[in-house]
Amino acid sequence: MSPRELKSLVRTIPDFPIEGIQFRDITTLIGHGEGFAATVDWLAERVRGSAAEAVAGMEARGFIFGAAVSAKLALPFLPIRKSGKLPCDTIGVDYALEYGSDRLEMDPASVAPGQKVAMVDDLLATGGTACATAKLLRKAGAVVEHAFFVIDLPDLGGAQKLGECGVGVAALMDFTGD
Question: What is the model's pTM?
């Protein structure tokens, strides 16, 4: 399937979660077998080309795409979790949100020093979570140079912010304006 055909599988829900927001819903994409497979193939090709030795996915929708890419490429999957979700000793980073803060955590033993890790997620908006993920992975000893997304919302500046964090970005599709 072409990127244009895949983009047509993403449902837009107006005024969610608040008035004025155009929510890009990937459940219609992952619910389309051929579309989901083509999306995973696109992401896997980029991860393969990045020479990554592992894939990190951010909770929660990054788990869907990241784990599928990891399985396709037979690479380790590193779940980046919200605070308090892992039963082992963790390392974490706090980061700012538009209205507050949050924390991401991971098992530091899941990364070997110098291991090349690619980040995979469904959507890039402001880049805050992705930059925090890169910081966390680097704190664990990983080399993080690439992030791959299904959707980019370029008007929100996430790709630029990730670039400032030293991470290159590629996205299958983007939604600008509206």
Answer: 0.95
